Queue: 4 jobs
Job 1
Amino acid sequence: MADVLRGLGVSAGAAAGPALRMGRVPRLPAPRTVTDQAAERAAAREAFDQVGRELAERAARAADPAARAILEAQALIAKDPMLAESCDGAIGAGLDAAHAVHTAFTQQADGLRAAGGYLAERAADLEDLRDRAVAWLLGEPMPGIPDPGHPFVLIADDLAPADTATLDPRRVLALVTARGGPTSHTAILARALGLPAVVACQEALAVEDGTLIHIDGDTGAVTLHVTAAVIAETAAETAGSPAESFAGPGRTADGHRVPLLLNIGSADDLPADAATDVEGVEGVGLLRTELLFLGRHDAPGLDEQREAYTRVFRALPGRRVVLRTLDAGADKPLPFLSLADEPNPALGIRGLRTSRTRPEVLETQLAAVAEAAAAADADVWVMAPMVSTAREAADFAARVRAHGLSKVGAMIEVPAAALRAAQILEHVDFLSIGTNDLGQYTMAADRQCGELADLLDPWQPALLDLIASCARAGKAAGKPVGVCGEAASDPWLACVLVGLGISSLSMSRAAVARVGARLSRYSYGDCVRLAESALAAADAAAARAAVTSAS
Amino acid sequence: MPERTVTVASSSGLHARPAAMFVKAAAAQPVPVKLRIGDGPAADARSILAVLALRVEHGTAVTLSTGAEDGPAAHEALNTLADLLSRDLDAEPANG
């Protein structure tokens, strides 16, 4: 294996430390014919011991008494004589150790579940222990996020939303995944937690546990077998990062103001003290209203929506809150819209297009927004997702203004809309560029397709060209053009966007300090030059290299 | 056949931490101990799964037994475990 693996850097920053792979739930192979039952019994016993020992070690390290009690109880279960007996019985009946362990745990778990109540809640613990014991017997890494008791770089095939619940950002230094792309769950999570991340690095899974590695979330390089000195140096650099001291507001070194805003799904995503100038954030640049109603079969009513929006508006008195109307799509199912099955949902009825068939849903939402805006004194802006034509923008603007809401905008996600930004701006007050979708439609590459991650790179010069043309249209019209896609979370790319003429950047909370700090080190003129060098590059990698090496 | 009947004092009964403390103490005894409620089925006191399955609530009288084992070690084991059950383990510090 080469000493430097290449992936796609999707969350900025560098980190170094021992690599640990995350195992998946093991799949039992076909049963083996057992020739030596005593050996199988010994192997099974060793698996129980191993799992029990690992849990006892984790319990001993746990700082939180509640967490320690849970881990201790799990360690006791692994050493339970009933399980061992039941496992021995299964081996006596001819099963190999892995199948016998699996059977013994599953029987107990089923029994607990049948008992119901408090005991049923323990069934999942038993299944977790079972998967650990079976993985050990099969020589696979233990399932779940490892907890070795020291900081490490997590290597995984890909991360599922459920994995994130157990990911401790104080232990995990960085993420490297074999699959995924710039807009995959791993990437979004990493940026939200402020962890450097490299995705689409297929060779990473072959890295042995414990190998000392260095990852660069800007360039996507994963360097193997680094020295302890490199690790210490990287840790020192991270600790001394000026990102820690960013106080806001967002501006370049020479005072060119660039409001930094948050992408949120509900009031719960706001800092507790959002009303003060925390973290240099000046408001919300993207309120994803559909996240409040995901998976719902009944359309949310006027009162429910008004209440949800009011919570956000009241948390930000006097601040800008850009609300995006419902954005349903293949990855964000809203069953109450009862959209027909489509052969290609990304090119189907989604975003603003749903109002063609269900105009009353948009009407109810706008009425709720208007009432919520009247009940608070936030500066409420309303925008539509997936606008394709100036006519659509005009229709949307008329509907919004009919509700007494004065600031209307269009999201730019469709290349057609980017090309006609000037005409769209004749009807609306602002534009907000969703770089994730604009990238996928510009490059004709599905956001979910990890193998096309290079095409989905937000540094693609074609994407930057479209952003530049929107920014020029905004300048000519004297109207703001912001970016609310994940591109705004990349500190270098944020400088480029400002240089292209973007007027505000909206991102996840964890990215604000990094982006704000980077921006404050360059003048507006520097940003313009960085943008020019990115636009002049032949491809995404060259664009990134041109900008990061110019510093 | 040495036996001791004792009322479980822990406020949560024999669940969660009190159950774990009891099972650990039972496993540390030199003789095997069984636990039952009234004339119900006896559970191996060293098995957390068996003890949890008894669903012992606060205030329940439970019987500890060493079966055929008799002698000083058996009595000592019963005393230790009976003492544990008669304390409110939920009220004791977690590091005990």
Job 2
Amino acid sequence: MFSICQWIYQTPLSIAIRESIWVYPILDVLHCVGILLVAGTIVVVDLRLLGFGMRRSSISSVIGQVLPWTLGGFGFMFITGSLLAWSEPVRLYRSLFFPWKLVFLALAAINALLFHYGVYRGVRTWDSASLTPARARWAGAVSIVCWICVIAAGRAVGYETT
Amino acid sequence: MVEIVHLIGMALFVGTLLLLDMGLLGVAMRRQPVSQVAAALAPWTWGGFVLLMLTGPFMFAAQAAKWHDNPIFWIKMLLLILATVFQLSVRRKIASGDPCLRPAAAKTIGAISLILWIGTALSAKMMEFV
């Protein structure tokens, strides 16, 4: 793994991002402000699953309206994050918090997939129910916890440079 | 630690406000009236705002000398005040229901709100670079 990080460190792309005055800060700002755009869409769906907020709208209606933005935002975060990571692979390899960020990202993704291909497939039966099924509520709660951990770990990684 | 709560507050506040502004702009949340989106999300938006307002002063206290000398911090404070005043003044218009709100007015409100709040968040981030 370490040798892969060293190899990445020496690629032209990695060097270019690191040595440019503007590219890294711009990626950094985009990635950090991008959190706000993605987190809101995710949090609204999770809260709705837990039964808080947008209750007059059915679950599928909330998810349907928000999903394109969540997916687009996630793609944006993934690209900016990957470019940031590509520029300093060795530091991230040695980081205490970056692995945790990845772990929670993976958990969040698995949770989302399990939800969408699991209990969500039968959404028509509980779309407007006053109480969403337990599995849907768990998915919402796990999602919130995972994303808070991703953000916290990410912020910790930011402090590790200084 | 305080900063993480601040970030969570930011995600809650700007995130829910963003959906409202997108509704006003007409680019998202179109299946229900904007006033309904506003009413439904309001407690979370307020909650996020409270988290931000509670943690902010603590963060300032920890870094007061440094931040006091940072011009970007004062820009952030200015934007914050402008954004808050603007948001409070248009609240009633948004919540009262759509018939009174012409589409052009709604879009303007949404756009200004977005610009002011994203500007606040952006200047917060830019503080690091000065």
Job 3
Amino acid sequence: MAKVKRGKVVRYNKWGYIFLIPFVAVYVLFQLIPLFRTFYYSFFENYRSGLTQIGPNFIGFGNYAKMLSNPDLWMYTKNTLIMWVLGFVPQIIISLLLGAWFSDPSLRLKGQRFFKTVIYLPNLIMASAFAMLFFTLFSDGGPINEMLMQIGVLKEPYQFLTNVWSTRGLVALMNFLMWFGNTTILLMAGMMGIDTSLFEAAEVDGATSTQVFFKITLPLLKPILIYVMITSLIGGLQMFDVPQILTNGKGDPMRSSMTLIMYLNNHLYSKNYGMSGALSVMLFIITGILSLIVFKFSNGKQDK
Amino acid sequence: MLSVETNETKKGLGIHARRALAYIVLVIMSFLCLFWFYILFVNATRSKGELTQGFTLLPSTHLIQNWKGVMAGTLPVVRGMINSLIVATCSAVLCTYFSTMTAYAIHVYDFKLKKFMFTFILAIMTIPTQVTALGFIQLVADMKLEDNFIPLIIPAIAAPATFFYMKQYMESALPLSLVEAARIDGSGEFRTFNSIVLPLMKPAIAVQAIFTFVANWNNYFTPALVLHDDKMKTLPILIAQLRSADFLKFDMGQVYVTIAFSIFPVIIVYLFLSKYIVQGVAMGSVKG
């Protein structure tokens, strides 16, 4: 068929390029050039000290050396990872459970539409408004403290936002609530894709539902689980809105909930461009490596 | 079916126990998802005085009064809503239209750089916007586009994730024979795209338009770097401003109303469209 229409096809195919123009033009202008500029800036000493502008002077990898030798970077990396893990572990457990239940035809759960709608809802909420809401709800004189005192759990208000682990816990709770519905739907779609004859065979052999879950569902779900975990980690490294608003950009108490992107944001606001550049490049490289892993796994999935 | 169930009751947890457990966990999770927004709703209807009198589950009658208080206050909430609406709507329209066009280019035509472009777009999909932020704000400053919506709207044209979704959808919904038929009828390529392909892509466009709208409505990082003038600020920036203000000066009822007006419009729209959204998430994931 292609042979017959060769001439025509070639004539039409220039439209492939024409239709790509808007995407490419906008991408180059607003993403690619800024990306290169960010790389470029990372090699210059360029910041403000009080009112005087230092630089820009070329210093090679000076910014990187300075950044990596600063304990702040490691502290914020640790904070980001801790809050990600605290949110991700319950998220994956609950999502696996709900996904298994939703996709199990023998359970015949009623109201699935309703439950799916509800658990996905927090994903669409404005993260900054959600964090602001949690800030007011969990403030010292806020409704949660009042409620806990009224029902007699607490005698005096618990200061959620002045304790390290309760602050991190709140950030993790918000991330958990915002993302477990999404993960449930992803995992459920994966579970629906498993060949039902495997489950039937297991039932004939007398396997319990727990055995089926651990021996059949989980191993077959491994590629999707890895995909979910790494995309969640990429998202976790970008954690910003929730801790930024909850702690008013300070990462209090004692910067224990300051994330990497909050650090970047602070550099950008104080016009510390050299450091922002180095930090951006580092995040770019880490995300790039993680994406490569995802890419490999999802390609393997398609080959199957 | 029956024999299977009795078989299961003998070994491990019985089906009834499992079903009960599933419902309990689902109810708890649903409660955890809705509880905060219910308190938000209740507190938005209570007056400043009532809010100091402890926690309650019953709404009061001061919603309108609180709203009027917000309107009279210093925070330009209405202006912020209009700004957010402009940015989110324009982004959603441009993003879906041009992502469909990009997907169409890759799906229908055969050209030398096709494979390269497809791989390239997939590769850039996971680059976080934050890592280009430094270069981006420099560019915006150079183009004198600070306090302007253009740098927030135009970049939506190049959206790799939306492109990918559209491409997946086209594979199942757009037969190439249809495009051929249009050509035989003498339709130009651009017209074919606008009058035949776009209507066919409506379900996918609707889903992605919602996602893009919500993502832009909620976006805080980039707008906060670009918009500094009070008249141009979007809602998330105002929320951040509310957080950094001296709290004691604020009427808490008004604070709750402001948060409610950032959150509830999205919830209401979602409740009407949830079927398509949840399906859309599942669909995007299968091949993702």
Job 4
Amino acid sequence: MMLEAFVQGIGILGPGLSDWYDAAAVFTGRRDYAPQPTALPAPSLLPATERRRTGRVVKLALAIASEAIAHAGAEPEHLRSVFSSSGGDGHNCHEICLSLAAEPREISPTRFSNSVHNASAGYWSIATGATLSSTVLCAFDGSFCAGLLEALTQVSVDRDPVLLVAYDTEYPEPLHSKRPVPDAFGIALVLTPGREDRSSARLEAALGAGTPDELEDSRLETLRRTNPAARSLPLIRQLALGEQGSVILEYLDALSLAVEVVPCR
Amino acid sequence: MRPLVLRAFTAASCIGRGLDQTLAALMEERSGLAPCRFEAISLDTHVGEVAGIDAQVLPSEFLRFECRNNRLAELALRQDGFDEAVEEVVRRFSPRRVGVFMGTSTSGILQTELAYRRRDPVSGSLPPDFDYGATHNSFSVANYLRRRLRLEGPAAAVSCACASSAKVFATARRMLDADLIDAALVGGVDSLCLTTLYGFHSLQLCSPGPCRPFDAARDGISIGEAAAFALVERVSGKESADDVLLLGVGESNDAYHMSAPHPEGHGARRAMLLALSDAGLEPDDIDYINLHGTGTPSNDRSESQAVTSVFGAVTPCSSTKGATGHALGAAGALEAVIAALALRHGFMPAGVNTADVDPTLTAHYLMTKRVAPVTRVLSNSFGFGGTNCSLILGRAG
């Protein structure tokens, strides 16, 4: 069976990349890439009480998922979802570990609920009423490919449209020194089994042993190397160029994912 | 779906290390829960601790993976010839064609909790021996098993709270159907840590005594720990009658609340219906239901309504969490292994600790084990964030 999906919508947010159109301008050379701290919008999907409780990772995931859905003209309740990230809410995790290293050991209920790796997926499904399957993955630096592979198997095998949301944010010190992700970056794709009105490209993927692609621009290459979700950048670039071509994405050790991008004209 | 066969399986929990001990405890209706003595914790609660984790060593080339969660994984790997079964599959296919999909909720976070007590008093930095990626990160246990068993196929941790290690079966099934792999090591590993003990306590979801699922006086969960593994591959047609098959998987989302189930169990109901349709079965085809049955007032009420709405009040069901505790991210795989034992040995486990079944819960709850042929079992796992997963396992003959 061929692993295949059509790209309906894209959402992206990261340092110096404010949305898909902005990122496309960078990758097509219409503007220079200038890294700036990632500005995360307040999650307007959530009621005010919930909004206050969410950290940067949920804001990031909801922002890129919302952009991809809008771009695709899709209804979130008709999409399965795959969320993938190396870490969860690093700031929340730090606060929990601080509290547990002190006396008396105490965690607030909200901190605990937000500590689960699937917190972003939970907030997304509650905010949008998405009741279809939601799978939440981690493969450390290979988390983007793990998510893309899961999404592609859901599209190809189960023939259902899928929202893929891959994202990672930073830990504060002292964990930051042990896991130096500098800033928030995320990418979301709406993938469907068949070609639709808004399909921008067809993806064909295969596992292999090819050396992962790097990016020519050293600042973008730094982003690719330092945020697990940014391992997606060679694919994002190919999608932005709107040209047929293949990319090799980093997954696990010698195992990589080759993706052929065929624009829909 | 096309059925998969469980070529090998094993589990380690507080009721037993390996299949023989686990089966004996289930047949004798024994609970492994005991007052919490873990890590000088003063909480008034019971836990299900696996004996001998601290004595388990990892092979010397994997020392950076050293943490409670990976030691528990190593301990289980050596049971029931499971590691040899993996080696046999690797020989039959190739390392590139065997995947690893592991459910976990907290992975080796205990290592970080302990490292925070050893921060440098001046700089605040974590000790040099602390390795985040090999211990705390959710991928740690899948990564450890992949390297330890010299597998080279696709791998991921599934971390959907307490549904994690049921959902790994769905991920593996799709990878097999897509012909990316020929076999997969699936399962779940979750171990005791301070985050979950204090966290569930803060939500007032921990029972002071051993948990009593479906009891009128149930008052919360008992946290457990477990490692449970299955080696799945496509059915060859040469299965024996005693072989256990994965027949169907159903996945859904409540889209209701982060830490409370939908009050009428709508999401749970959909997961069970999807699993039945995936397996091409009717509710009458299921002989026994292994419930999520955590012992919280809300979970058991919501799950009972969901079960009754699909199966009526006739299909026998029970929660084995009174025996094992709630193994969180490992619960789905642990209960899949218990379902496999029920199928192979012809019995339905009792809901231990439960004294008086809540009369408002209409599902047919088993207070004592029932010895009878069991052909098909449905197993439920639900988690924070509203994730639901139901598995259907059956005998090959």
